[in-house]
Amino acid sequence: MDDISALAKRRGFIYPGSEIYGGIAGFWDYGPLGVELKNNIKRAWWRQMVYEREDVVGMDAAIIMNPKVWEASGHTSSFTDPLVECKICHKRFRSDKPEQLAAHEKDHNEPVEWTQPKKFNLLTEVLLGATEPKMTAYLRGEITQGVFVNFRNVVDSTRVKVPFGIAQIGKAFRNEITPGNFTFRSREFEQMELEYFVKPDEKTAAELFEYWKQERMRWYVSLGMTKDSLRFRDHESDERVFYAKFATDIEYNAPFGWSEFEGIHHRGDWDLSRHKLTYADPETGETYKPWVIETSGGVDRAALFFLIDAYREDGKRVILGLHPKLAPVKAAVFPLVANKPDIVDKARAVYGLLKKRFVAGWDDRGNIGKRYLAQDEIGTPWCVTIDYDTLKDDSVTVRDRDTTKQERVNIDQLIHYMEEKYEK
Ligand code: GAP
């Protein structure tokens, strides 16, 4: 983890939030490469979940909603973690995380007396308005409710018919008691979610629950995550969140143990009932409350696990073997020498060509070997060198990050060459 967080900071993936003022627990800033990685994850997700399907539409709801939404959804009363306080130093912990309590006892070198667990609500309050008393609202604790409160709007303004889904990506906020494990447990994070509405029927719901579990697992594997480092874990009835009839997590075998980064939930008609919403079948006229199968992934946790999974060392080479679709920079362009205008001009032209298609990098410092090392470390799949032969025959050397093999490719074939591999 230390290697990953050091690399993330040094190369501009992830910085601690508000660092020059001493930081703030549970908040992180994404740098120039981090924003590309996150955008690539979100784009790939949206493509699979919305563009490639006929039964899913997207939306983007406001972060702050009328507080009545959170009362109706049950979050103001039930969206809680059990909090205990150490009677020696008054630090607070979650009592459902025994490993954290044990670690704290070790720090004190003596048994700790804990206060009785009390329910701690995770919603983050905000005050709105210019006059007193201000209105207390909440930053959304899950992006989900924005979809449910717009259920009727979407049905009325589009041609969707049950079964159908609404997809959304956006920020959520939780006042976590113990943020930690780098970005894993943050107070501000992004979610990518699908709410899939089905006719209330146990068999249909069970089939779709299984279908979405497999779809979501397949997606992570298709983007290069190691299959053996992934597993499903069903929630026991006593750990299920208040809205879920069934829940399964997709977990990754992280350096800090198997950890959830996506949940598949059978929410039944919990939410539509609470918001008093129904659906009228346009063909039969039948009115009912659809059930919801939800897939809820964390963008930041996915980014963290893609980084961890891709990280490897090979002698003095550090390599981020990210799938080309996720790599922040797809290709880096190098003029062999920086002091020959013909070569630099040609390299600039190739750089301009590649930049029109995807994120390309430029490096003319030091020797080529060092430039390769710098690109390997940020996961750039291809390095393109413009040399003396390029001036004669318009071909360039393309070096592959994973095999380190080099091939001569004609400039007018370059984009096609990369796209062929890129789409794999
Ligand atoms: N709408 C359902 C829902 O919010 P959840 O299991 O509470 O379900 C879904 O959250 C996903 O959101 C998690 O699997 C995780 O990836 C992400 N997530 C939740 N809390 C998080 C936190 N404190 N920091 C980072 N990501 C978080």
Architecture overview:
Helix content is 33%, strand content 29%. With 424 residues, the chain is an alpha+beta fold. It folds into two domains: 266 residues, BirA Bifunctional Protein, domain 2, CATH 3.30.930.10; 94 residues, Rossmann fold. Strands 3-10-11-17-14-13-12 form a seven-stranded mixed β-sheet. The protein has a five-stranded mixed β-sheet with strand order 21-20-22-23-24, with helices on both faces. Strands 4-9-8 form a three-stranded antiparallel β-sheet. Helix 2 packs across helix 10. The mean pLDDT is 96. The site of glycyl-adenosine-5'-phosphate has 19 residues, from strand 11, strand 14, strand 17 and helix 10. The site of glycyl-adenosine-5'-phosphate (GAP) has 19 residues, from strand 11, strand 14, strand 17 and helix 10.
Quick tags:
Rossmann fold; BirA Bifunctional Protein, domain 2; alpha+beta; binds glycyl-adenosine-5'-phosphate
Rough outline: globular
Instruction: Kindly report how far apart the N and C termini lie.
Output: 29 Å
Helical proportion?
25-40%
| DSSP helical segment count | 14
CATH fold type of the largest domain: BirA Bifunctional Protein, domain 2
Tell me, what is the CATH class of the largest domain? Answer: Alpha Beta
Radius of gyration: 25 Å
User: Largest sheet at a glance?
Assistant: 7 strands, mixed
Hetero groups: glycyl-adenosine-5'-phosphate
Low-confidence stretches: none
Strands of the biggest beta sheet: in what spatial order? 3-10-11-17-14-13-12
